[in-house]
Amino acid sequence: MTKRVLKVLGLVLLTTALVLVIMEAYGYFRDGYWQSYLLGQFWYSWSPGTLNLTQAITERYLHWWLWDYGIGQLVIWPLWVTAGGLGLVFYLIGRR
């Protein structure tokens, strides 16, 4: 049952990544430049308090470099890369 859920979640995330790439490509052909939707922008527009809280807790209670070189680097990646990568991992785990 868990494998099936992971596989379906992986497929949903992979489909989301594909839709995001298509949206960015459409914007490129419409406007003439590539504008990526970043994970941090999406997270901030969805829930700015949790992004700031996550940064504060990570830097204060864990270690500053975990935010600067780990999570902080992840939030500047394009959203389709993170959704696609996570979807691929979930799909492969669910496929086993």
How would you characterize this protein structure?
- With 96 residues, this protein is an all-alpha fold.
- It folds into two domains: 1-35 and 79-96; 38-77, no CATH class.
- The protein has helices spanning 2-31, 39-46, 48-62, 64-74, 79-95.
- The longest helix has 30 residues, at 2-31.
- The protein is flat, with a radius of gyration of 16 Å.
What is the structure about, briefly put?
The chain has 96 residues and is mostly helical.
Sketch the topology as an H/E string, one letter per element: HHHHH
Beta-strand portion reads under 5%
Quaternary class: single chain
Question: What is the residue-mean pLDDT, rounded to a whole number?
Answer: 93
- The DSSP helix count reads 5
Helix content: over 70%
Poorly predicted ranges: none
Kindly report how far apart the N and C termini lie. Answer: 12 Å
Biggest beta sheet attributes: none
How many E strands? 0
Q: State Rg.
A: 16 Å
SSE layout:
Elements (H helix, E strand, L loop, with lengths): L1 H30 L7 H8 L1 H15 L1 H11 L4 H17 L1
Helix pairs in contact: 1-5, 2-3, 3-4
Looking at this protein, list some descriptive labels:
single chain; 2 domains; flat; mainly alpha
